[in-house]
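Batch manifest, entry 17 of 40.
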Amino acid sequence: MKDNYSKYINVILPIPVDAPLIYKLPENSDIPQKGCRVLVPLKGRKIPAVGISFGLSDPKIINNISQGIEIKTLYNIIDDKPIIPISFVDFIEWASKYYCHPLGMVFEEALPSDVFSSTKKAIDKIIKSFEKNKEKKDITPDFIKWIENPPLLTDEQKICLEKVDQTLSKKKFSPFLLFGVTGSGKTEVYINAVKRCIETKKNALVMVPEIAMTSQIVSRFMNRFNNVAVFHSGLTNPQKLSSWNNARKGNTSIVIGTRSSIFTPMQNIGLIIVDEEHDPSYKQDHGFRYNARDLAIVRAQKENATVILGSATPSISSNYNVLVGKYSLISLTKRIGKGGFPSVTIVDKKNISEKNDTLPYWLNQTTYDSINETLENKEQVLIFLNKRGFATYIFCEDCGFVFTCSNCSVTYTWHKSINKKIKNIETEGVLRCHYCGDEKPSLPLCPRCKSLTIKSTGYGTERIMMELTGIFPKAIIDRLDRDVITSKNRLENVLDKFRNKETDILIGTQMVTKGHDFPNLTLVCILMADFSFNLPEFNASEKAFQLISQVSGRSGRGEKPGKVIIQTYNPNNQVINFAINQNYNDFYNFEITKRKKYGYPPFEKILLILFSGKSEPAVKKIALDSLIEIEKIKKMDIFNDSMTLFGPSPSPINRIDNRFRWQIMIKVMSNNLFLRSLDMIYPKISKFKKGSVRVEFDIDPVSML
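Output type: C-alpha cells
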C-alpha cells in the first residue's frame, strides 16, 4: 500500500442512511473487493454489523473529516470474493438512486436475510456461516429436458418466436410487448423463448405477479426443463437461500418468481419475461417502493438482454412505448382451441324486472338461471367479487353509530365465519380492519347507545358463499381470497380442486384473475363491476378495464363455449363496453386522450411524497416545510413551469394503523427533468426524516390512496 488512503473503505450497512460509512482496514489486511461482506462495529450495538464493501473511500472525504472524529476499524472480511456480480451491484445502486431509498436498505430488500440483514438472529447465522464457510465447487447442470412431442405452435406463436429469436442471437437490449388475448398461448411462447435463450448459453428470468400464479407456471416449465429455481415470499428462509445460491453460482439457468425475483443475482442473463406486466402487484406499496416490471427493463438494458412484457390488457405506459418506438410489438390475436371468446350478458341492476324477492339482493334471475344451467351441464362457475368478508358496513339502526377502525379512517368488515376468542370474549365472527389488521369481537350491542339493533350491509365473498350454499345445496363451493388462503399449500389445494373439477363454484377476489387456466370453466359472474370506477385515482379506468377483461378471460378457455355475466348500475359505461368487446385499442385511445389532457403518465412523470405520524399537526408541519423547499426548486430556470405541485393535503385514506397521512404530488413534464428534480428534492426532504414523522418517496405510483 503506497498511501494512507488505501486503508479506508466505504461500507454499505442495512440502516436508513443515504451515504456509505467509512471504516479503517486492520494492519496488513487486503482490500476487500466491491460486493464482499465485512463485519464492522456500529455505534449503539453490542454485536458486529454486517456490511458490504463499496470500494476505497474518496481521499477528499478523508481529508475533510474532523480530526476529533475517530474512524473505527472493521473487524473482519467475510468473503474472499464478491457474493454478487459487479453488474448486479450497479443495478442495485441505480434502483436506490431512482426510487430515493437508502442503498443499504435496498440491499437488505434484495438479498436473503441469511446473507445480509440488520437483525441479531441473522447476523449470528452469518457469523457462524463465515467461521466454517467453504465454497462448494460449482456444478454444470443439465438444463434441457425437452419433451419429445411439445404442443404444436400456431402461426402467430411462430412469428412471435422468430422475432424474439433474432434478438437473442444478437445479444443486445431488445424490449418486446407481447399483446396476447386471454387463452392465446402466451405461456407456450415464453417456454419456447426460454429454450432458445438457453441454447445461446444464456440464462432466463421469468416473473409472475403473485404466488397464486407461480405453481401453475412452474409446473409447466418443470415439464420441459431441469433445475428451475423458484423465488417468492411463500418460501422458507433456507429455501430462498438455496435458490439464491443456485442462481448466483450458475447452478440453474432458469429462475421463476414474483417481484422480488428481479433481484436474483444471475449472471449472463439473455432473457427476462414479465408475465401479466400490467398487474399492480409488481409495485411494492411500502418501504422500498420499486416496480419490478420497470426494473426488468433497466436490468435488461444493463445485461444487453431481451425482455418480453406479456399481457392481454397491456398497461397504458407499455402500449405507449410501442407507439413511440421504444418497444417492439408482437401479437397473439386468436385463442387456442375451439372455445373462442365468451359471450357477454350485461345485467342492469337498476332494472326492476330483474329483481326477485326470493333471491338475495346480488343474485338476480338471469344470474341464477345461468348458474343453474351451468351446474346441470356439469360445468364450472366462477363468481368474482373484489371484496372479502361477510358484510362491509356495520351500523346501529337506532343512533347511527358506524363501526369504524380505531386505528384507521375506514370501516370494519364483518367476518362471520372466523370464530376466535378476543379479550376473553367468545364471539360469532370478528370485525376486522383490512388495512391495519385490528380485530374486535362482533358484539350484538351498540357501544354508544347499547341498542341491539345492529345492522350490516354490503356483500363480501364470505356472504356470497354462505348464500350460494343455501341456494345450490348439492354444489361443491369454495373460496379464493386472502382470508382462506393462509398458506401456499392451501392456495394450491383450492386451485387444484377447481382445476380437477372437484369444485363446482369458485368465489374469489382479484386472486382469481391472475392468468389461471380452467378448461371446464364456462360461466363467469362479475358482481358489483362499478366499484373500481369510483376510486380517486388517475388510473382507475385502466385498472377496471384490466380487471373486467382478465376475469372474463377465464371463461371458455377449453373446448366448450364460455359465458360472462356482468352486473352493473351503469350498463352504458364506455370502459365496461370496451372490456366486454375485447376492444383494447379503442379503450387505449379513450384513456390516452384523458391522460394527455390532464397531464398524467405517460405524458408527465409523478412523484408522490408521503408523510405519516401519530400526531397530525406534526405531520402537517413537516409536509408544509417540505413544500417550501420544493417550491424553491420549482422556481429554478431549468424547470421553466414544467413542474406542477399539488398539496400538501390529507391522503384519501387519512389514517392507517394509527398514523395520520398527508401527501404532496409533483408532476414533471419530461423524464430528464424528472430525474433532475429527484436529485434536488430528495436531499432537501431527507433532512425531515427525523423524529416521529416518516417521509417516504413513491416514484411512479400506481395507487394514490
